[in-house]
Amino acid sequence: MKTIVIDGIFFQLNEWSGIARFWRTLLNDLDRKLEDVESLRIFVLARGSSTTLRGDQFQHIQILPVAYFDPLCALSDYKELSYICRALEADVFISSYYTLAYGVANIGIAYDFIPEAMGWMNNHIWKLKEIYMRSLRHCLSISRSTAYCAELYYPNLTSGNKDIFYPPITKGETRTIAKAEIDQLRQSHGLNYPYVAVVGHRSDYKNVNLLMRALETRPAYSSKISLGVVATSGEALTDQEMELFQQHFQFGIRRVELDSTDMPTFLNAAEVLFYPSLLEGFGYPIAEALAQQCPVITTGATSISEILEYAESEDYKLISGHDEKEALLAIIDITNKRQRASATTAARISEAFGKVDALAFVHRLLTLSEAIAPPLEPELPGLLAIDGLLA
Q: pTM here?
């Protein structure tokens, strides 16, 4: 009997993000397939409330409620996890977000190395990530780019092609959207005009403020662009943004909050997705947009290029991500064409990223665990305190 323990800590931190969606899809697929698998036990630790995990009616995966994770008590938590794994006779432990269990084989998982690239590693939670990464020998990754960066930033790690598990886009995200559904979304959010979609936050490496900088240098007497810009969630709009976009875009800029089930419809209805990100672990919105035949303006940086491999060249426009005028011209050019991304691209994206193979994920964990020694407490970087570390 083989036993895998999964720390569902990320469901405590953010139950609705892309990482949570990745794990939710993986666990649901695994639970369906465990019926035909003998001699395998899966335990998932539900931290605190973790309503998503506790609410799911798993038939074969066992949910174990445990205490909240407190970053200020990380070392104590790692020791507690080792007790749990020993009690369950675990063969391998994997955390959904940077926790360790001593005394058992740990396989890591890497989503991105954005904090390392952005110089954010003095932040408390990222120091814990550094401890996590330096304590491991092998990690799975969500893209080729992420696997490459794993070994670049942490030479102690190995992450090869067999260890890449792309976040799957679901049938709900690739489904055909009826006109009535689009009309309802437009009416409920007042989006009765052509718009450029902006997903998530707009600053830092997401680089959407590139567009604002372009508008700041555009002559005030220029004709308005016959579009609106619609941002989903992210930061609240500033008065300066509102005024600037109103000056240059016929329908200005708006920020809307959408349910995750609305996102495919939102992208389907958009003229283009503007996603000039400079760093991505995967670039989920790009895959989702192309699956809905929404053209994309993006940089092709890091893992984004891995998605664009499956798209026809006319269905996206690459920009450098550093030239403000180039970004604005790209929006004007692609929206003037009013051309949808091709059905061929949508089908390829759905085929490439619409699959989830949880058993392959599990088998890789077990195979790797047979050759990896458990992390030892002395392996923690000596200069990095854990318990009591101030944010």
A: 0.92
